[in-house]
Amino acid sequence: MLNHANLERNSDFLKFLFSLKRSHKRVVSMLLDSLFLLTAFWCALFVRLDVVNILSLGDFWALGFSLIPISILGFYRLGLYRTVLRYLGFQALDAIFWGVFFSTVSLVLISYFFKIPIPRTVPVIYAAFALIFVGGSRAFIRSLVGTGLKRIGEPVVIYGAGVAGRQLMTALVQSHEYYPFAFVDDDASLHGTVIQGVHVHSPSIIKKLIREKKATKVLLALPSASRSRRQDIILSLEPLAVQILTLPSMADLVSGNKLYSDIKEVEIDDLLGRDAVAPRRELMTANITGKVVMVTGAGGSIGSELCRQILILQPKKLVLFEISEFGLYAIEKQLISTAKQLDIDVKIVPMLGSVQRENRVQAVMEVFRVQTVYHAAAYKHVPLVEQNVVEGVRNNVFGTLYTAKAAIAANVETFVLISTDKAVRPTNIMGTTKRMAELVLQALADESHNTRFCMVRFGNVLGSSGSVVPLFKKQIALGGPVTVTHPEITRFFMTIPEASQLVIQAGAMGKGGDVFVLDMGKSVKIVDLASKMIRLSGFEVKDSTHPDGDISIEFTGLRPGEKLYEELLIGDDVTGTEHERIMTANELCLSWADLEPILSRLDMACHNFDHEGIRDLLINTPTGFSPTDGICDLVWQAKAISQDKTSKVVNLVS
After folding, report:
1. Residue pair 523/516 in contact by the 8 Å Cβ criterion
2. What is the mean pLDDT of residues 217-222?
């Protein structure tokens, strides 16, 4: 109890000391150093002369008071008072050493010129005392920072005792939120060492450390580790059911965008264990730098990230085409702010409009002389498109057709369609309409014009609207349950920035009619992803084997049109490209002469809300459409119910 009270008093004193203004702290430091140097001077005389009445000698008093201001000036010039005490390092120690050396030389020179007799050993003894008082006092206060201030707060373990871990430790000791009580590190040479009063341990005993201190969090201080390495560490910590927090990336730390104290939850892309390949500059700039670029669906998840990537590559103009007023406002504001921060001179053109209005799209392309188009405008949520069939077909098929025709009329050089893995052997309307959009571009690519068409097909992107990851996070924060459609469902995942960069690079490699497929890595079992997210949030999964767990996983059943497994290729005819993450698929396509009448009939069926006709056309066109459910369109179902009721009434009357 007494030791705890002393720690609290030390903490209160240090808090007061560190709360002073910087100028006041310097004055306090100078006054204390003056007292230390004067004490060191008299101690040196007492040790050497051993005379009680030495204090009555006026020459020594004059010598001492002459020495102090000169010494303090030397310390000041050496930068000692610019050092932040809590971050005391080798530079400060260097300043203390040379400051004491300067003070000692000053002592010798003053005594010589003013003929004040002092023994030759006094300067040496004085230097020793000065180093002890000036340097030792700072080391003592610095040690109190690491011991007295941080024995309160939530106990945590820091994984990584390197530079980042030490910086994180320094940042955390100033807060009241966390108390770092242990380091763990894979480097065996660090085991048993002590950093700022905190011991470094082997990861093999982390479970014991967590149990002893009842810690609920582990802070990963490995900003420069590869994603695969981070995945290995995270998976090793997963069974502990503690919350895993991590430092920002080294790039963010170096750029100043993030601080060591900006710890955050583990990103799900760390669980994928896939290191992003650095984008190739020549492919990134080929269709963008110095050109007029247009992004349709600019306010969406993929469209907005494409805009951010494109802006950095400095196009001549960036045309944002978006049907959502708020989405357009948000991305324009963000891009203007980014351009200002990065000092990029790019004209940003916000355009409201629908891709279903060909004359509007063509007018925009012609007026601004668009050279490259990234077509990201689409309805992508499987259940919603399943319930709104006509609009899904209108937007995804005919929106692509009209935008492509407008691009041809406006002499656009390159047109890149953002496609999806759901276009492969689709079981739903959304995937089928995206495959139809691919067929449209493949057919148009063979026609005579100046526009080069290509398509890029990939799976789910982490963090996009409607993604399971933000849904799971929200459900975990609310205490569960976490909902998964099926125990066996799997999906491919990729980060939005990586997907956007690969789309840009694939577009630069297109020759005309290409279907590019991105390497998505291994598919992820969604129930395993949910379990990992629960455990890494510091909770136990509640199930039959762990009835006392915290959060349960509930299976809701597959939604209309949803597949258990997604594919990226229709067939096996795939070839590599110059980029290791981009492949090209050689798949069945139709000529424009064959496709045009199909599109005409599809247009008429949409106009007449003929859902049976729409489904028949989509099935009979070589899209691979194999529906697993009946017609789910809400308008069609409502009409069917109404007609059924009317039929029953007629039968009763008759």
Report:
1. no
2. 83
Residue with tokens 């180093």, as numbered in its chain: 131
Pairing of strands 194-195, 198-201: antiparallel
Q: What is the pTM of this model?
A: 0.67
pLDDT higher than threshold 50 for residue 584: yes
Question: Residue 33 phi/psi, 5° resolution?
Answer: -65, -35
For 652, the 3-state DSSP assignment is helix
| Cβ burial 366-379 (10 Å sphere, 16+ → b, else e) | eebebbbbbbbbbb
CA dist 400 and 396 (Å) reads 6
- Which tokens belong to 321? 């085409």
As beta bridge partners, residue 159 has 184, 220
pLDDT at residue 470 tops 80: no
Cα angle 191, 193, 195; round to 5: 125
Domain definitions of the chain by residue range: 2-147, 154-266, 281-460+494-519+568-620
Show Cβ contacts of residue 73 under 8 Å, excluding neighbours closer than 6 positions.
none
422: annotated active-site residue: yes
- Euclidean distance between CA atoms 614 and 633, whole angstroms: 11
Distance CA 260, CA 167 (A): 6
Instruction: List pLDDT tens digits, range 94-142.
Output: 778 888 888 888 888 888 887 777 778 888 888 888 888 887 777 776 6
**Interhelix angle 22-49/58-77, nearest 10 degrees:** 140
- Dihedral sign, Cα of residue 439, residue 444, residue 446, residue 450: negative
Give me the CATH topology for the region 154-266: Rossmann fold (3.40.50)
The larger pLDDT score, comparing residue 85 to residue 476, is at 476
> What DSSP designation does 580 have?
T
pLDDT in tens, 414-429: 999 999 888 888 889 9
Could you tell me the fold of the domain covering 281-460+494-519+568-620?
Rossmann fold (3.40.50)
**Per-residue pLDDT at 364 exceeds 70:** yes
Look at residues 572, 536, 498 and name the one whose alpha carbon lies nearest to residue 306.
498
Q: Dump the DSSP string for 23-49.
A: HHHHHHHHHHHHHHHHHHHHHHHHHHH
Pairing assessment for the beta strands 514-518 and 582-585 based on DSSP bridges? antiparallel
Q: How many CB atoms lie within 10 A of CB 45?
A: 22
What are 483's strand-pairing partners?
A: 554
Please name which of 336, 337, 326, 338 lies closest in space to residue 299, comparing C-alpha atoms. Answer: 326
Report residue 631 as tokens. Answer: 């017609």
Look at residue 2 in the predicted model and tell me its pLDDT. 44
Same fold, 154-266 and 281-460+494-519+568-620: yes
Task: Give the DSSP per-residue string, 401-417.
Answer: HHHHHHHHHTT-SEEEE
Catalytic residue among 422, 434, 532, 563: 422
Which DSSP state fits 537? B
Backbone angles phi, psi at 382, to 5 degrees: -55, -55
Cα gap 197→169, rounded to integer Å: 11
Most confident region among 104-108, 188-192, 408-412, 636-640 by mean pLDDT: 408-412
Q: How many CB atoms lie within 10 A of CB 110?
A: 17
* 481 prior amide bond cis, ω within 30: yes
Q: Tokens 């907005």 belong to which residue? A: 304
Q: By the 8 A CB rule, do 435 and 618 touch?
A: no
Structure confidence at residue 1 (pLDDT): 43
pLDDT tens by residue, 182-205: 888 888 888 888 777 788 898 888
**Cβ atoms of residues 551 and 541 within 8 Å:** yes
How many CA atoms within 13 Å lie on the side-chain side of 149?
24
Mean pLDDT on 443-467: 81
Mean pLDDT of 317-343: 94
